[in-house]
Specification:
Oligomer: single chain
Mean pLDDT: 82
Strand content: under 5%
Largest sheet: 2 strands, parallel
Strand order of the largest sheet: 1-2
Length: 146
């Protein structure tokens, strides 16, 4: 029997994966220097983990709610697709803000590329937390059914 991944599971797994992702993304930002830190280490750690947790909850809930509509059965592909799609929608909103008020909102290519890669990483981390939490299905690996 395939594993079930509902909205409740998505929220729990998304929160855990998102908090881990927040810490990893802070480390990636420190390594790449794509954008300057806004405050001290503790302040940034809190901001990144809370932001990551929120993004993870939203992505996890969409993964659980959209199980019938997402064209992938594999949890890794489904999670990466969903978190990247959410990020692209947010980026489209940022592009609209940039078109409306270019002196206030402006596109920064290094941040854009880093954000795209980190959103895919969030999906992989949510799927990893799911696989760790639930373990592989005996019948069909990590294939999910709604």
């Amino acid at each position: 029997m395939p594993l079930k991944f509902g909205v409740k599971d998505g929220i729990i797994v998304g929160a855990a994966g998102g908090v881990l992702w927040g810490l990893v993304s802070m480390a990636v930002n420190s390594a790449t220097g794509a954008f300057a830190p806004e405050a001290g280490l503790v302040h940034d750690a809190v901001s990144f983990t809370l932001g990551g947790g929120l993004f993870g909850v939203v992505a996890g809930a969409f993964i659980g709610a959209g199980a019938r509509f997402i064209p992938f059965g594999n949890i890794y592909a489904r999670s990466v697709f969903t978190s990247t799609l959410i990020w692209l929608l947010l980026r489209a909103g940022g592009a609209m803000l940039s078109a409306i008020e270019p002196e206030r909102y402006h596109v920064l290519t290094p941040e854009t590329l880093q954000g795209l890669l980190l959103s895919a990483l969030l999906g992989a981390m949510i799927a990893g937390v799911w696989s760790f939490w639930k373990g592989p299905s005996r019948e069909d690996g990590d294939t999910l059914k709604a």
